[in-house]
Design brief:
- This protein is α+β, with helices and mostly antiparallel strands.
- Helix content is about 35%, strand content about 20%.
- It has five helices and four strands, in the order E-H-H-E-E-H-H-H-E.
- The chain has a four-stranded antiparallel β-sheet with strand order 2-3-1-4.
- Strand 2 and strand 3 form a beta hairpin.
- The longest helix is centred in the N-terminal third of the chain and has 10 residues.
- The chain is globular.
């Protein structure tokens, strides 16, 4: 299994952060977005928050190709609308692509089995 870890900052405004949290809740998450994530082959996606900093962990099968999957995801129903919606909360350019918003992290430590 492959694991990807990315980070992004939100605008440091408590009201916006609260709205961003709600948008990602079980009750308010857009079903088309959840379906699209699974459709491109992602097995699990988690987003963690600390203040205005986000960390996203994505798990996918060994044969998963990140760039291909993200290009395909961008074409799926409501994905562009979702990106435009969440951009209001994110500290980035208004028209930034997902790859420009989320920065891939590099693993520098593990338990060296």
């Amino acid at each position: 299994m492959k694991r990807y870890v990315q980070t992004m900052d939100l605008k440091d405004e408590p009201t916006l952060i609260a709205r961003y949290r709600r948008a990602h809740s079980r009750e308010e998450a857009w079903q088309e977005i959840l379906d699209g994530i699974r459709q491109v082959g992602i097995l699990e996606m988690e987003v963690y928050i600390c203040g205005a900093r986000l960390v996203m962990i994505v798990e996918a099968p060994d044969d998963f190709q990140w760039d291909d999957a993200m290009a395909r995801l961008a074409t799926l129903p409501r994905q562009a609308e979702w990106e435009e919606f969440v951009a209001q909360f994110q500290r980035c350019e208004a028209n930034a692509t997902s790859d420009e918003k989320w920065q891939m992290m590099e693993r520098i430590f593990h338990l060296y089995e």
